[in-house]
């Protein structure tokens, strides 16, 4: 596993707007709801944390408690308690924004932090799925409600993994390795094999989980893997400017699908069904609405990857 980058002091920026934008990954991959709501809140939290010396990983851990609390508060059939849960989940997501913004502002980045950030969301939604299943059984559903609950949970994990992967691929092409958190299973496997079970037991388990996560992303994107392999082989000193421009033009429109299958869309509908006291619909929305969007997203990304693989191997971007 890579070591944590030494934090640097918060950089002085001449304008607040530019400092805020510097805390974002990229406008290409940001959702409007995040830019308008969650990122500004996260930025203020990140500024406070930077001033008092709180690092990104503790912020992520705190977000887990608020996200899990939200799931617990969705269990009772009491709208006001559910609303408190909604606010708790929104605050958890603001903290999730803050940890990444803080890491970029202070250059306090690590692979462990990235893994922890991804695991945090899983904890939130595991709690939410359990709460909805238990709530549904109290409303008269049989134990069979756990079947769509588990299927929806597995679907959510794949949707989030692929959306995160495609975002990082996009950032890799437009920003390079410094602006992306793109990993590959070959390098991760080598690092995992070098770790000791006796001296690094906990980290080795984490590394194994992250390796499996990355292999899953690669399994669903074979043509993208061919593209990344040829890019790594041919452009060791950096990508040609025209390739960056052309890839961004074709791939940027697909970023909206990565946003749809992640947090905001699913939570808006989850809140709606909680208000209607029909929370069980959330599972079927995940399975029958978001999964087709996931499939479409994967197919389109594979088409873009295949196009650029052919263009590169044909010599179009040799100059």
UniProtKB/TrEMBL annotation:
Residue spans of biased composition, Basic and acidic residues class: 10-23
Signal sequence coordinates: none
Protein name stated in the entry: CDP-alcohol phosphatidyltransferase
Transmembrane segments: 57-74, 119-137, 143-166, 281-299
Region (Disordered): 1-23
Taxonomy of the source species: Bacteria, Pseudomonadati, Bacteroidota, Cytophagia, Cytophagales
Keywords tagged on the record: Membrane, Transmembrane, Transmembrane helix
């Amino acid at each position: 596993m890579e070591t944590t980058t030494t934090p640097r002091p918060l950089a002085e920026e001449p304008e607040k707007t530019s400092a805020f934008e510097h805390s974002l990954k990229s406008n290409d991959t940001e959702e409007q709801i995040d830019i308008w709501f969650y990122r500004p809140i996260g930025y203020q939290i990140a500024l406070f944390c930077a001033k008092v010396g709180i690092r990104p990983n503790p912020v992520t851990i705190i977000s887990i408690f608020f996200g899990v609390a939200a799931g617990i508060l969705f269990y009772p059939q009491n709208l006001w308690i559910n609303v408190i849960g909604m606010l708790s989940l929104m605050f958890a997501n603001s903290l999730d924004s803050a940890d990444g913004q803080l890491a970029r502002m202070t250059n306090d980045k690590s692979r462990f932090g990235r893994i922890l950030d991804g695991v945090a969301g899983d904890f939130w939604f595991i709690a939410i799925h359990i709460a909805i299943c238990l709530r549904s059984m109290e409303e008269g559903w049989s134990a069979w409600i756990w079947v769509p609950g588990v299927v929806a949970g597995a679907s959510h994990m794949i949707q989030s993994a692929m959306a995160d992967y495609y975002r990082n691929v996009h950032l890799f092409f437009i920003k390079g390795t410094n602006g992306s958190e793109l990993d590959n299973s070959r390098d991760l496997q080598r690092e995992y094999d070098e770790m000791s079970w006796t001296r690094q037991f906990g980290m080795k388990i984490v590394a194994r989980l992250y390796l499996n996560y990355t292999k899953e992303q690669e399994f669903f994107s074979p043509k993208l893997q061919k593209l990344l392999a040829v890019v790594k082989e041919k452009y060791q000193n950096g990508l040609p400017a025209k390739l960056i421009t052309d890839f961004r033009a074709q791939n940027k429109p697909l970023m909206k699908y990565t946003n749809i299958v992640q947090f905001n869309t699913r939570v808006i509908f989850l809140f709606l069904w909680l208000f209607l006291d029909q929370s069980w619909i959330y599972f079927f929305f995940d399975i029958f609405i978001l999964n087709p969007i996931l499939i479409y997203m994967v197919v389109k990304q594979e088409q873009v990857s295949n196009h650029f693989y052919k263009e590169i191997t044909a010599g179009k971007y040799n100059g």
